[in-house]
Input
Amino acid sequence: MTVPTELPPPPLGSFASDNAAGVSPEVLAALVAANEGPALAYGEDPWTAEMVAAFRDLFDAPVEVLVGWGGTGANVFGLASLLQPWQSVLCTDTAHIVVDECGAPARFTGSAITPVPHVDGKLEVAAVAPFLHWLGTEHHVQPRVLSISQVSEMGTVYSVDEIAALCDFAHANGLLVHLDGARIANAVVATGADVRTMLRDAGVDVLTFGLTKDGAMYGESVVYLRPELAEHARFVRKQAGQLPSKARFVSAQVTALLADELWLRNAEHANAMARRLAELVADVPGVRVPRPPEANSLFVQLPPEKIRPLQDWSFFWEWDLSQDMVRWMTSFATTDDDLDRFAAGVRAVLAG
Ligand SMILES: Cc1ncc(COP(=O)(O)O)c(C=O)c1O
Output
């Protein structure tokens, strides 16, 4: 293996993940402001009321919202509030809930999480349909929820029509639709769709509305677009250990990001950085970009012997080594200088 001795300085920012970034200054300011005086715990505070009002305004609907400590926890209690132990969730075989959450959704729901072959990271009606064959037969777990990730784990983005088709299909078969929106802001700006159209009107029932990767410090929200589905959700959240006692600090972050569309501006920046990174490495010999970035991640194929030296210089995650595929992620905090340095390092390592 040839490892070049002379490499340019690595970027200050990280391309490992969008949650390697810090926190939006506006969020930090909101945390400081929320630190004024005492407030009742467990969400009985003015910041939480304001956060719920902000979501109702965003969706122009009487949604229910419960915050939790993080993305996995939000997926866990969001799903657990929809399921009985004999029921199951259908999701792609690349979904975070089945690959990256250490089995937490299956353990806390008591329900099977059934992986369905993905198409470019997405769930498709044709792929799901065969899994409904045993609906109504007592020997088999009963599919109750379709769960999709928007943005998908493969960096692809569902169109509004694709989400609506899945929702129509699910509802026609007595299923609900859960959406893991860890990167919902990136998807909204990528499609140019209005969030009401993409989620409420398309028919999504419950979603994790993620903001941690978009400038928050911690904590995620579960939004029940059909409020009646939240009937038992508070109990489920508490049992799952996801009720933050000082909930005001999560709520204040959410409100700060929703205000003045900061959540969308942050995502717009992150997505634009991924597009620019794709341009910068497009002509580097040995780099193959199978698909232009749709949101804030770039999946590239590299000569396998170059992956480790490049990671040692500036760390990123391998994604699918069967295809020599790695993932580079940008965030609201990525700078032009980060991009230039990273692209220069890629060029140097691949030339070495
Ligand atoms: C698609 C997806 N869902 C959920 C999460 C939430 O994870 P965490 O529990 O680390 O906040 C992530 C984080 O990487 C993710 O990529």
Summary: Residues 70-72, 96, 149, 153, 180, 182, 212 surround pyridoxal-5'-phosphate (CB under 6 Å). Strands lie at 64-68, 87-92, 112-116, 142-149, 176-181, 206-209, 220-224, 297-301, 317-320, 325-329.
